[in-house]
Write a structure and sequence with these properties.
alpha/beta, 4-stranded mixed beta sheet, 39% strand, elongated
Length: 132
């Protein structure tokens, strides 16, 4: 069994996936746009992402741009959690994710290890961990 996150964006999925691919050294795979979709979609959305995956060592999630008639409500229903082997690497990832976003818990040492929580500039919630 494999359970994955599927992230929804409001038209900036391509930009967000490039952002994440640089941070996590991962590749955008299986990218499909709405151009050839057999659904009624405005022409302004033809180049938007209907489906894509981000794959790399230790990372794999899916993402898309929700159709204009599908409202996206930003909330705290889901967080992407990243576990890293070193404090330096974890802090670097946290700093990149939180840049231009919002820090909810500073990345610092806790009882169990190092931890930080943020929302990135695309509205995605992240928890970055490094065990002791």
């Amino acid at each position: 069994m494999n359970v994955q996150a599927y992230l929804a964006f409001t038209g900036n999925c391509q930009e967000a996936l490039h952002f994440y691919s640089n941070i996590f050294n991962a590749e955008i795979k299986n990218k499909q746009t709405y151009k050839d979709a057999k659904i009624d979609i405005p022409s302004s959305y033809h180049q938007k992402i209907q489906h894509a995956e981000l794959k790399g060592k230790g990372i794999h999630f899916m993402a898309y741009d929700a159709a204009p008639d599908t409202p996206i409500n930003h909330g705290n229903q889901i967080h992407m959690s990243v576990d890293l082997p070193s404090v330096e690497e974890a802090e670097n990832i946290f700093d990149q994710l939180s840049e231009n976003g919002q820090v909810h818990h500073d990345f610092r040492e806790r009882e169990w290890g190092h931890f930080g929580r943020c929302t990135d500039e695309y509205g995605i919630n992240w928890m970055v961990n490094c065990d002791k």
